[in-house]
TrEMBL record:
Keywords: Cell membrane, Membrane, Transmembrane, Transmembrane helix, Transport. It is a multi-pass membrane protein. It comes from Kribbella deserti. The chain crosses the membrane at residues 20-37, 57-75, 87-106, 112-133, 145-167, 173-194, 206-225, 237-257, 278-299, 311-328, 340-359, 484-501. It is found in: Cell membrane. Residues 21-507 form the Major facilitator superfamily (MFS) profile domain. The keyword Transmembrane applies. This is MFS transporter.
Amino acid sequence: MSQVVVVEDGVVEDPRRRRAILMAVCIALMAVIASVSGLNVAQPELAVEFGASQSTVLWIINIYTISLAALLLPLGAMGDRWGRKPVLLAGLAVFGMASAAAGLAPSTELMLAARLLGGVGAAMIMPVTLAVITSTFPDEERSKAIGVWSGVAGGGGILGMYLSAVLVDLATWRWLFVLPVALVVAAVVMALRAVPNSREDFVHKFDRVGSFTSVVAVLGLIYVLHEGPVHGWTEPLTLISLLVGLLAAVAFVLWELRQQAPLLDVRLFRKRGLASGSVSLLAVFGVLAGIFVVLFPYFQAVLGWSGLRSTLALMPMALLMMFASGLAPRVAARVGSRTTMAAGILLGAVGLALMAVFVSVEGGYLSVLPGMVAMGLGMGLSMTPSTEAITTALPRERQGVASALNDVTREFGTALGVAMLGAILSAGYRNAIDARLAGTPDEIADAARDGVANALAAAEGAGPQAGALIRIAQESFVAGWRQAMWVGVAVMLVLFGYVVVRGPEKATTDSK
């Protein structure tokens, strides 16, 4: 690739400064990740505050993740060109102002605008955090730093949800935005003091066509995954979005193949590391997101727990995930990246199988805890080598793009997992409850078919049948749970076989 590379600051040799850099970028990452999931715990409060429909509330939540995912690749590339520190600081400023505006928003329109702007700021921050690590840490320390970053990226969402649930319980939903603003202030202070600037000076112009087609492709496909389960997969807008997304994706690939300096060199997917790392993160984050779709209704509708207690119940999995992400580089150094990835994926499959086998209405939390423990360890072990496989597959001057690709893959996996496992859970629930509603009044039966939460609400007007209806709904939910978990097991086993055959070599910088 014909380009002149200028690196203003290279590898940082001082261990204390490296620790400060890692802390700064992880705090910035935590602000972004916590904002992805934080508002989920305040859906009823948002609906009441703004007089909004459920669809509008979902848009307030999802517009952030959609704009974040769509802009990751072009803004990650801009970080490589403009300087990673300036882009990080600019992103933190935009994100912080957007978070403050969302917390003070008096109307739905301003809330949506603030969340959209927050997604833009997050798309500037997220790829740069990983790119700073890969460009400033020496080879022997990079894996450990990526392990910490992966732990925050994987477990930070659950931690953010817990802190958000605490704030909603103790104060109001508006206090949810105090946390990201506080994290932004801390990240800015630490970044100004510790994070060096590095940028690359490219001979070729910025790939505007590639950037535009990538944005359109991600927007179209992510929109389908977010809105398809809500409005229907065969709705005209859903089908149009799918067509536009697919056409833009094809146009992106064809354009990139013709460029001397593409935004993303798609030929690199021939490499084992890039291909297997991307596929692994796609599937792992998909299954992980799908599990949350299952676990929260189980805790709240089946066990009758509050949102705060339900979020606290996820903490063992989150903490183990973060621990295993930090442990993964040591394991990979001994047995190889491919073996570590495969072991983590297999352990994740075991966790899903444990939950499918042992979950029950009577068993409560203890019936799913062993599976959650196995899942946390397995996901953590697989995330770090997958992330490193992606970042080492692209050259140093493209680390912003490598980091953005890593993040886009996670976002796609999350959206795909929620759509797929959520649909399987819903279908399994409906099939199970249909056969048990004989003799139930039509109005109550129709409400019960819509979901376990609706069934519990309908039970209030069911009179003497209330107890039986609640039991039927809970057991039907568990039946749907099992189907979703077994599908997750199948996905993980297919991924395990793929990684065993085509995973990265012991050194992730393979060229195969």
